[in-house]
Amino acid sequence: MERRHFLTCTAAALAALAGRDAWVAELLARPPAAAGGNVEPLTGPQTDLLAAICGALLPATDTPGATAAGVPAFIARLYADWMLADEQRSFRDGLADLDAGARMQHGAGFPALEPSSQLQLLEEWDAASVAARNGGQAPTFFARVKTLALLGYYTSEVGQERELHVRYGGGAGDPGGPNCTTIPMRI
Amino acid sequence: MPKSEYDAIVVGSGISGGWAAKELTGRGLATLLLERGRPVRHGVDYVTEGKPVYDFPFRLQGDRRRYATERPVQSRSPFVTEATEHFFVDDRRNPYGTPGDRPFTWIRGHQLGGRSLTWGRQSYRMSARNFEDNARDGHGADWPIRYADLAPWYDHVERFIGVSGETLGNPMAPDGVFQKPMPMNPPERDFAARVAGAFPDRVVTVARAANITEPVGDRAPCQMRNACARGCSWGGYFSTLSSTLPAAQATGRLTVRTHTIVHSVIYEGKRRRASGVRIIDAMTGKASELHARVVFLCASAFESVRILLNSSSPEFPDGLANSSGTLGRYVMDHCASDLGFAEIDGPPLPNYSGARPVPLLIPRFRNVDDAQRTYVRGYQMHAGASPAGWERGVYAHGVGAALKTALRDSGPWSLFLIAQLEMLPRADNRVTLDPVLRDAWGMPALRIDVAYGDNEAAMRREASATVGEMFDAVGYRNARVIPLQPVPGEAVHEMGGARMGRDRRTSVLNAWNQAHDVPNLFVTDGAAMASSSSANPSLTYMALSARAASHAVELLKRREI
């Protein structure tokens, strides 16, 4: 199930990459107004919440986790310098919703919860995200955070060198290789 | 007549211009190579080469907030990232128009080496059938050459640049001078065997690639870093900078001038000759002229046509060399089918960065005999297999330590399959000078009016169905075909607009890429194409450029131009 689901979603992501909607000439002569950004920086509590979620999502095990890999700072950089203005708004709203959910269920913010409670919440949010995706609904905010955290972790030096032990050369000398080139993933 | 400072001027330093410069200098001509963009030094200026992903601030997702204003078109290519963006144009300074309902994605690179730095490197000969199809079915003008005319020039080019590939004996994918092919992985070999068993008319081979597997001069074989578009200081793939430019420079007869935009070709009506080009200094905006005995336009298909359209004169009010009225018409690209994915078995692999930089090829198998379909021409297919990386976690269920454990090793294998379709040449598909829009240097921008037609639609339906049918026939059960909505230009194979032909009343160029109307003017890039075939076209541009350059030198020697 998990494999098939991955396949489906990978294909959907590639289709989204390759599928093109209508394209108007004016766009070329006139920069879109969508850029902007930085309308409001993340607050201290929002930053703490983000860091706690990342830390619990990809914890230190026999290898360093998201915190040591600098994932919260990476996502904060995406927020500050990469997200468009409407995405920044959605991101702040999403953090507020997760915070409210934690407080409603456990009476305290996510960062203050015991690890077991944090993991329980993450599992609930993750299950809801998978259900939404399987139901053809819009991606949840948690799914977005998870995507950003995975990107931040596995493309970090820790992720590449210590977790994945990435080897160079595409597997050309491996009896099972080489990998074939693919379209790079865009989140 | 102004005294010529050079024997030849070559406009554009990409795949075609580099070849023209190499051949012209190699045959004794003092040649001026003009490039509108900045200089790029081989190796030294590949500033992102070898940088690990974690050294990029957005981890190769692209600086999208900046791209939204600077590169709204270029960034539609998934290959435009922080690692490669400097090899793609600033869309604000290089606008073009399209009708609102007929989008076109025009991907460009303005620098020394042009798009030879970022191209896909698949290198195929057009087949004998491809050169005959226009005459056979009546679409487009008959090519004035046949495969046999170009075959020795394909040989010449392949020997020089190095092309890896497998000899097939397949008439739709003529064999060439090949280095050893790049390897397939075990699931790809399994796919090839299954296809061979189920479809006697189809062969699966690894793409023929200008990624070398054996040394060429001081160029080292491809290291499978799969980061070609950053530039490769090994010279593992052919580019102007790794290959033709150093050869041209070694003759001592080449002058390179960057930041030099060609505004128009200077035409001397009395002599019926081009005497040079009007240029704009890209840095200062200063206009001036340069002169030569022969002019080669190799600025890319649409840019070469733009220069000709902008070169109007009393003799040629609708653009230079346009007595036929076909200049700017019959432009083409390729067209993608829907995209198939199948889950397949494969061995566990360590996590690798890099990859074989080209996919697999299935040469055209439709409409090659007398059994005709509901469409004319055909398509080739591409495939490739890889195990899933950590990215599968985006779609997987799981959190915490269990998620880390699940993603530590590479995941299940999948194989993609997609077709690349030939696009018919149609007069309605054309580029013109936009009446209003100007680029940053005041030159009229292009208006690109191109759409896929009924033949592409019919072929697309059949090809997309074939993707699914092939998965079924080879026994891949967990397969899906994902609908795509291809937009012209996305293949980055735009071509045509100054087509070759036998008849000066219906074509711009003759059998030697020489303008019917202006004997010392040659156009040897994609603009010359009279049909698109389904093959990736760059190798053909190289062969046409080399052949035309050789001919031009002969004509100069005989004082016929």
What does this structure look like?
The complex is a heterodimer of chains A (187) and B (561). Chain A has 187 residues and is mainly alpha-helical. Chain A has a domain at 40-163. Chain A is 58% helix and 0% strand. Chain A contains 8 helices and no strands. In chain A, helix 3 packs across helix 4 and helix 4 (71-81) crosses helix 7 (141-154). The longest helix of chain A is centred in the middle third of the chain and has 22 residues, at 85-106. The model of chain A is unreliable at 1-34 (pLDDT under 50). Chain B is an alpha+beta fold and 561 residues long. Chain B has 2 domains: 6-122 and 227-333 and 427-451 and 491-557, FAD/NAD(P)-binding domain; 165-207 and 335-421 and 453-482, no CATH class. Chain B contains 10 helices and 16 strands. Chain B has helices spanning 15-26, 64-70, 128-137, 147-161, 186-198, 240-250, 301-309, 400-407, 454-474, 538-557; strands at 6-11, 31-34, 205-206, 254-257, 260-268, 273-281, 287-297, 335-336, 339-344, 360-362, 379-387, 413-421, 430-438, 444-449, 479-482, 521-523. In chain B, the strands form 3 sheets. In chain B, strands 1, 2, 4, 5, 6, 7 and 16 form a 7-stranded mixed beta sheet that branches. Chain B starts with 5 loop residues before the first strand and ends with a helix. The mean pLDDT of chain B is 97. The interface between A and B is large, with 88 and 98 residues.
Key terms:
heterodimer, A: 187 residues, mainly alpha, 0% strand, disordered N terminus, B: 561 residues, alpha+beta, FAD/NAD(P)-binding domain, seven-stranded mixed beta sheet
Please write out the topology.
The complex is a heterodimer of chains A (187) and B (561).
Chain A: H1 2-18, H2 26-29, H3 44-57, H4 71-81, H5 85-106, H6 115-134, H7 141-154, H8 157-163
Helix pairs in contact in A: 3-4, 4-7
Chain B: E1 6-11, H1 15-26, E2 31-34, H2 64-70, H3 128-137, H4 147-161, H5 186-198, E3 205-206, H6 240-250, E4 254-257, E5 260-268, E6 273-281, E7 287-297, H7 301-309, E8 335-336, E9 339-344, E10 360-362, E11 379-387, H8 400-407, E12 413-421, E13 430-438, E14 444-449, H9 454-474, E15 479-482, E16 521-523, H10 538-557
Parallel strand pairs in B: 1-2, 1-7, 2-4, 7-16
Antiparallel strand pairs in B: 3-10, 5-6, 6-7, 8-12, 9-12, 9-15, 10-11, 11-12, 13-14
